[in-house]
Structures are given as structure tokens and as C-alpha cells.
Design a protein that fits this description.
By secondary structure, the protein is mostly helical. The protein has six helices and two strands, in the order αααββααα. The chain has a two-stranded antiparallel ribbon with strand order 1-2. The longest helix is centred in the last third of the chain and has 25 residues. The radius of gyration is 14 Å and the shape is globular.
Length: 118
């Protein structure tokens, strides 16, 4: 799960509906080839593919990628361990869903804060 300290290092997520792989790579501080690899390893990560097999990520995908990044890079999980952790969070429908809503709300509030400061 993203901690507030980790979230400060990453740019705020803009209020767009869809993001390209390049935009998501910048928002999550990972390279595009890493995102494509994570799609194969994490069943929760399924961007929309349109013509030419171009990927379009939604807001919840960006949040999921940031969570995966935190598990792997900050907390030291292996790919298998992170996959299992995410599956366990989603398995408990109430807990995982509530955490997702809290993360989404936190992200949106940070966006509002940036707008108010600007």
C-alpha cells in the first residue's frame, strides 16, 4: 500500500480518464518495459488496448501500479510475494475494496491540494 511518504516522491495523478504507457511510466517512476512485464505477472493489471495494440491505463490502473511499485521497490517483496499480497487484499472484498477507496480518495485530495497551492 502506498504510504504518504512514498506518495510525495511521485507526481500527482492528473484528472484524466485515460493515460498512455509513457504517461504512466512518468507518474509511477518506472520504465514502459517494466509496465508491460508487470501486466504479464499481475492479473489485476489490465489496461485497455485499442487499435495498434496501444495501451490506455485508467486511474485505478495507475493506483495499482503505484501499489505494485511500493511492494516491490519499497517493501522488498518478490514478484510472487507481491502478487499473493494483492490477491489476499482483493480476496477480502470489504478490506481490499475499502483500502482501494481510501487510496483513491487520498490521491484525489492531493490533486485538489496541488490545485489550491498553485
Amino acid at each position: 500500500m502506498l504510504e504518504p511518504s512514498n506518495n510525495n516522491e511521485l507526481p500527482p495523478i492528473p484528472g484524466k480518464r485515460y493515460f498512455t504507457i509513457g504517461e504512466v511510466a512518468e507518474l509511477c517512476a518506472v520504465k514502459p518495459h517494466v509496465l508491460r512485464y508487470w501486466e504479464q505477472e499481475f492479473p489485476q493489471l489490465k489496461p485497455i488496448k485499442r487499435r495498434g495494440n496501444r495501451r490506455y491505463y485508467q486511474h485505478q490502473d495507475v493506483l495499482m501500479i503505484r501499489q505494485i511499485r511500493t511492494l516491490l521497490y519499497e517493501e522488498g517483496f518478490t514478484i510472487g510475494g507481491a502478487r499473493q499480497r494483492l490477491a489476499n487484499e482483493q480476496g477480502g472484498e470489504g478490506n481490499g475494496y475499502q483500502r482501494h477507496l481510501v487510496r483513491q480518495l487520498r490521491s484525489e485530495l492531493e490533486e485538489v491540494l496541488v490545485i489550491l497551492k498553485g
